[in-house]
Automatic annotation (TrEMBL):
Protein's name according to its UniProt entry: Cysteine synthase
CDD domains documented for this protein: CBS_like
UniProtKB keywords: Amino-acid biosynthesis, Cysteine biosynthesis, Pyridoxal phosphate, Transferase
Upper lineage: Bacteria, Pseudomonadati, Myxococcota, Polyangia, Polyangiales
UniProt organism field: Sandaracinus amylolyticus
Residues binding pyridoxal 5'-phosphate: N73, G176, T177, T178, G179, T180, S257
Length: 302
């Protein structure tokens, strides 16, 4: 009987064809369903990588307590892996996080600290850093930890290359910690340099959970801009409208950051069509829509 642990079920998520926004026969738009991970998001990959590698180095040992600032998905993933490995964990997040995320973290045994919403993620980061400085905690630091992007170099990139039979021409990903795009870019460019790497960030004034336009002093240390060929700015309304469109027209139920990535991927497909070129465009659909049901995301009628 081949029954594996929850950690062994991270990754190997499927690609699905997305039809809407593709107007040329030689263009394929594919979405990678990261909500199929056991913790429900792409963040399961770096959470497992950061904890297991910290153990292997001896940085994390039995009895130690973890702390991490998070906008939600990484916190859920870390809470899941910490529970499976027997660690206490404290998660710090802005108070405007959806109720589903907070409840899931607490259900997994995590302590959740909510910082003022108007301080955004920067406030959560500052709070966690202050507690680490006071002693008694280990912060994995998803924003500066190379074990974040390594997870995608070792799993996300190879899965996409394998499942597209090496035909991928464009990879599109939202940029938060930037771990997904950094690791996947490394792998895909090693296979074929011409694969185009496209990142998404919010327009000024837009608030899209999971996608950030960072102030320079908070820019993730793992981010290397030369590994991204193009950055597309995504308006909050377009990201949210695309999330609803994916649910209603494709049966693909995902959150707003996924909607942002899919909107940007559609722009890439439109550019290819205008230029008369074929392509295989893959975007990351990073979590499930059920994490947003307490928000207005799916209540608006377009």
């Amino acid at each position: 009987m081949d029954v594996k642990s929850i950690l062994d079920r991270v990754g190997s998520t499927p690609l699905v064809t997305l039809q809407t926004g593709v107007d040329r026969a030689g263009i394929r738009l594919l979405g990678k369903l990261e909500g199929n991970n056991p913790g429900g998001s792409v963040k399961d990959r770096p959470a497992r990588s950061m904890i297991l590698r910290a153990e292997a180095r001896g940085d994390l040992r039995p009895g130690m307590k973890l702390i991490e600032p998070t906008s939600g998905n990484t916190g859920i993933a870390l809470a899941m892996i910490a529970a499976a490995r027997g660690y206490a964990i404290e998660l710090v997040m802005p108070a405007n996080a959806t109720a589903e995320r907070v409840k899931q973290m607490r259900a997994l045994g995590a302590t959740v600290i909510l910082t003022p919403a108007d301080a955004a993620m920067e406030g959560a980061i500052d709070h966690a850093r202050e507690k680490v400085a006071a002693g008694g905690y280990l912060m994995l630091d998803q924003f500066g930890n190379a074990d974040n992007w390594r997870a995608h170099y070792e799993s996300t990139g190879p899965e996409i290359w394998r499942d597209t039979d090496g035909t991928i021409t464009h990879f599109v990903s939202s940029m938060g910690t930037t771990g997904t795009i950094m690791g996947t870019s490394r792998f895909l460019k090693e296979q074929r340099e011409s694969v185009q790497i496209v990142g998404c960030q919010p327009t000024e004034g837009s608030s899209i959970p999971g996608i950030r336009r960072w102030p320079i002093e908070y820019l993730p240390k793992i981010y290397e801009p030369e590994r991204v060929d193009r950055v597309i700015d995504v308006d909050q309304r377009d990201a949210e409208r695309t999330s609803r469109d994916l649910a209603r027209r494709e049966g693909v139920f995902v959150g707003a950051s996924s909607g942002g990535a899919a909107w940007a991927a559609r722009q890439v497909c439109a550019d290819l069509a205008r230029e008369g070129r074929d392509g295989v465009v893959v975007c990351i659909l990073c979590d499930r829509g059920d994490r947003y049901l307490s928000s207005p995301l799916f209540e608006t009628q377009d």
